[in-house]
Amino acid sequence: MHTNQNDESEDTLRLAYGRQVQELLSQSDAATWIEDLWQMYTGYTMFMQEAGHNPRGSNTFISFRELVFFFQDIEKMKN
After folding, report:
1. What is the distance between the alpha carbons of residues 72 and 69, in angstroms, rounded to a whole number?
2. Which of 2, 18, 35, 56 is deepest in the core (most CB within 10 A)?
3. 10 Å Cβ neighbour count for 54?
4. pTM
5. Where are the domains of the chain?
6. pLDDT in tens, 5-25
7. Cβ contact 54:48 at 8 Å
8. Closest Cα to residue 68, out of 23, 36, 45, 27?
């Protein structure tokens, strides 16, 4: 019985995530999000060249990369 409640809780969470993704994609399609992410990251890297070393720079890149991969996967689902 405890497992069933956990499964329902996980399903509810997945549905909530799905609604959030749907809301994001209602604003722009995945390809536009990818393009916008590249523009933001390019601006960020240009700023960081002037601002100096950021010890979290590699973490920022990993986050950026994962977002791009996420939207690429979403785009593949639609095709």
Report:
1. 5
2. 35
3. 13
4. 0.75
5. 2-78
6. 777 899 999 999 999 999 999
7. yes
8. 36
